[in-house]
């Protein structure tokens, strides 16, 4: 197992890696709307999901994969009323690529985030 890290995404806020590779797979840690400098995007769910996806892009790049290599995504929302707004941004992010996905409502997320997303990617 190899740890993956980049300064183009926020540093882990706990004892974990931004991502790890294990065999042909890359597992990202869940990303919340923190900028690479660690400041929180305290805006709409639309603004938050854009930052989360930018963080995930940076981590995927550091791992040597792209969003087209993502095979599974998990989305955590504090309010499923935001599902359609997050779904719009998610769909635009992936375009025609359709990885498997789960979306779960949770009671709370770190730093008061409205959304957290994690990916599993397969190296080509």
TrEMBL record:
Belongs to the RutC family. Pfam families: Ribonuc_L-PSP (PF01042). This is 2-iminobutanoate/2-iminopropanoate deaminase. It comes from Alicyclobacillus macrosporangiidus. One of its GO terms (cellular component) is cytosol. Coiled coil: none annotated. Gene3D superfamilies: RutC-like (3.30.1330.40). One of its GO terms (molecular function) is deaminase activity.
